[in-house]
Write a structure and sequence with these properties.
heterodimer; A: alpha+beta; Glutaredoxin; 2 domains; elongated; B: alpha/beta; Rossmann fold; 4-stranded mixed sheet; 24 helices
Chain lengths: 168, 595
């Protein structure tokens, strides 16, 4: 499992989000098989990440320990304990992309943005991550920025793509 | 009635290449020309030829256009749909025939395939249940519910010889029999759609292109073993597949093909979709069930097997997406039809996702027993750029690399294991002479170290130690003793790890050691990476013949390792060089070489 890096960004959840969260948890609890994992998925959809404050509420409402919630949250790679950047850069390091040189694309992206894997810039604008296969191996190597897909890349293409989002 | 239909691929590959925008452009363009009632625009699942996407087919001619952009839409409408002339320049170019090919079925890529699991992919609109029904959809469920006893269903599946397509190849009929034999009011049917092998996308394509086939097969399985509830555990990284499954589920319920009292036969079967959250180990059956229950997806020892004690402690069967995609056709066409395809012990077909250094990246379905040569050269179009084939990797992080000497081995479960790889779920990554096999082994080990759940020691610590050995080798610090120790450790992990992930984790190392030991030895004895990949062992040099002395590389070098005088050849100081490769990328004259 990947190393656990806890965020230093302060929690800015709103009352509206908390209301949504508690309503969702009430519904999850009343199902035939209440699931911490499903609760975390839905919580992440509300907050876009899983700060410890949110995990605490989930533990209380679901009647399980915070340790158990934290255990599930850190087990799966889709859960993030840190807020993603406004522009989330992700490079596919799946096999098909890797043999076509996505490792170099990833290194170039990290050096261009000055961030490491799983890191978010201090202003909250950019984040970098290495992902597993995104499934468009025909376009390998692939990078995604939020929903946009960039395929058949070389390391040379990276600075131009980054510049596009720096201007935006 | 429509006089023409435009089929636009809506698989993940083509969608990433803006096929959705092309679809909208067609609708707009046809409306402008008042053709919206004459020409149908249909989004389908994957056609298979992802390499040349976005792809579209125009019927009735069957014209197969590749690499289409929104700018081409107007021309296709005006030339093809109005004047009836094919747009030659957009037709797919077959590398073998070296000419434009009109129809998808005429391409070499297609001719050698047999489509069973992918029968409807790229043919029907996956979001329209009527199209599925029009292609014999839900006929198998009707047949089973009205004409067959549960045991008869299991007998047909057993007789067909179908084996699990998730990789391990366990006979599907036997699995169903074990669960059917259990006496219990509550049993579950699960579908493993947590396709985690990097580079594999077969299951995703089936879910995106033909979701109803999976739902129907699960209902049949439910009837066969006496279950009324199913779960599909699908990767959250597959948003299109999840969305189409949801649409299909809703439609099937509306039509009374799922839910209470299906078709008035008194049989109840309901399905629920459970999203994964990205953990490779959840492809292992006990881990998957623990994850469906909402916990950390850690595996547990077997027995008890899931057929006895599975999800929520109840008897459960778990099959892979592609396995289910075969079921309905076996029921309709019979066990003999299915077992007539394939080899003695591996019946039917197998879908492979071709990727890596191959011309036709994409999805192919071949009868078991097809040789690697046929797949890579005839269907895949060979290795591009005149490079030499080195190995094909199958089975993902659990599999191995197959070298060119085994090119003519017929592909089936048992043969692949005997040559040191495995079927796996069906990823096939082609590597050429520029790929370092030690680096590839290291890549897979990094993956397993990352994905090891940590429950058992051989996997948690063993894989990490293996990776350290590989690190030593790729940086030139290893001894021949290390190589022997590493091999021993591989066998130890295989024998002692708790689940399939750990037991197969050493396979990439063992198979590359078996076929490419010389590469390992070159790293250790000569401190040399024959493919020039391992950073610790390569050197960048400037060819004085080609260098024009422009200083571009020197200005780019982050550590000031390149010096020289303008207009005479520059040199790189190997002591300062950090091997970032920026100089090579900068040089316009190709004067910088890796050694």
């Amino acid at each position: 499992m990947s190393k656990i890096k806890l965020t230093t960004v302060t929690f800015k959840g709103t009352a509206e989000q908390e209301k949504q969260l508690r309503a969702m948890l009430n519904e999850e609890k009343s199902g035939a098989h209440p699931s911490v994992m499903a609760a975390l998925q839905k919580a992440q959809a509300i907050y876009s990440y899983l700060p410890i404050e949110v995990q605490t509420i989930i533990a209380e409402e679901m009647g399980v320990s915070l340790e158990e919630v934290f255990g599930v949250a850190t087990f799966y790679s889709q859960f993030t304990l840190n807020p993603k950047g406004e522009y989330a850069f992700a490079v596919c390091l799946g096999t098909a992309c890797y043999v076509k040189g996505s490792g170099e694309v990833f290194d170039k992206l990290c050096s261009t943005l000055g961030l490491g894997d799983g890191e978010t810039s201090a202003d909250g604008k950019y984040s970098v991550s290495a992902t597993r296969c995104v499934g468009c191996c025909g376009l390998a190597p692939v990078m995604t920025v939020n929903g946009d897909v960039y395929g058949k890349l070389t390391a040379k293409d990276v600075p131009d793509i980054v510049a596009k989002y720096k201007q935006a | 009635m429509f006089r023409s239909s435009i089929l636009i691929c809506g698989g993940t590959g083509c969608t990433s290449n803006h096929s959705q925008e092309i679809r909208e452009e067609f609708i707009k363009e046809l409306k402008e020309k008042n053709l919206e009632n004459d020409v149908a625009v249909i989004g389908t699942g994957c056609f298979g030829l992802c390499a040349v996407g976005p792809v579209i087919i125009v019927y009735p001619e069957g014209a197969f256009y590749s690499g289409v952009t929104t700018a081409d839409v107007k021309e296709i409408v005006e030339e093809h749909l109005i004047k009836g002339r094919l747009v030659e320049r957009l037709l797919y170019v077959d590398k073998h025939a070296n000419s434009h090919v009109k129809a998808l079925s005429d391409t070499n890529f297609y001719k050698k395939q047999t489509r069973v699991a992918l029968k409807n992919c790229g043919v029907i609109d996956p979001e329209n249940i009527d199209e599925y029904i029009g292609c014999d959809g839900y006929q198998a469920l009707i047949k089973v519910l009205t004409e067959m006893k549960p045991q008869e269903v299991i007998d047909v599946i057993k007789a067909s010889g179908l084996r699990g397509r998730g990789g391990a190849g366990f006979p599907t009929g036997m699995k169903w029999q074990f669960a059917a034999n259990q006496v219990n009011d509550t049993k579950y049917v699960c579908c493993n759609a947590d396709e985690g092998d990097p580079g594999a996308f077969m299951d995703r394509s089936v879910l995106e292109g033909d979701p109803h086939a999976v739902l129907e097969a699960m209902a049949i399985a439910g009837y066969a073993i006496g279950s009324h509830q199913g779960y599909i555990y699908v990767r959250a990284e597959y948003p299109i597949a999840v969305q189409r499954l949801n649409v299909a589920l809703k439609q099937a319920k509306e039509y009374g093909l799922l839910g209470k009292n299906i078709l008035g036969t008194g049989f109840d079967f309901d399905l629920e979709i459970k999203l994964g959250s990205g953990a490779f180990v959840c492809g292992e059956e006990t881990a998957l069930m623990t994850s469906v229950e909402g916990h950390r997806g850690e595996p547990r020892p077997r027995p008890p097997f899931p057929a006895v004690k599975g999800l929520f402690g109840k008897p459960t069967i778990l099959n892979n997406v592609e396995t289910y995609a075969n079921i309905c056709q076996i029921i309709l066409k019979g066990a003999d039809w299915f077992s007539s395809m394939g080899t003695e012990k591996s019946k039917g077909t197998k879908v492979f996702a071709l990727g890596g250094k191959i011309t036709n990246t994409g999805l192919v379905e071949i009868p078991m027993g097809t040789t690697l040569r046929q797949v890579i050269e005839d269907i895949g179009g060979g290795v591009p750029n005149g490079k030499k084939f080195k190995a094909a990797q199958t089975g993902g992080p659990s599999g191995g690399c197959i070298p060119a000497v085994n090119f003519d081995v017929p592909i089936d479960y048992d043969n692949l294991i005997s040559i040191g790889s495995m079927m796996g779920s069906g990823g096939m990554i082609v590597m050429d002479e520029d790929n370092c096999m030690v680096d590839i082994a290291k890549f897979f080990l990094e993956f397993t170290v990352d994905e090891s759940c940590g429950k058992c020691t051989p996997c948690r610590i063993g894989t990490r130690r293996l990776l350290e050995y590989l690190d030593k080798i790729t940086t030139g610090k290893a001894t021949m003793q290390d190589l022997d120790d590493m091999e021993q450790l591989c066998y130890y992990i295989k024998a002692n790890a708790l689940c399939g992930l750990g037991q197969t984790a050493p396979n990439p190392v063992l198979s590359t050691l078996r076929y490419f030991r010389d590469e390992y030895e070159a790293h250790i004895k000569e401190h040399r990476c024959p493919a020039h990949v391992c950073k610790g062992l390569i050197q960048y040099k400037i060819d004085p013949e080609k260098c024009k002395g422009c200083s571009a590389c020197s200005r780019k070098c982050p550590v000031g390792a390149i010096t020289g005088e303008i207009k005479s050849p520059f040199t790189i100081d190997p002591m300062k060089c950090v091997k970032c490769g920026q100089c090579m990328a900068t040089c316009k004259f190709g004067a910088i070489v890796k050694e």
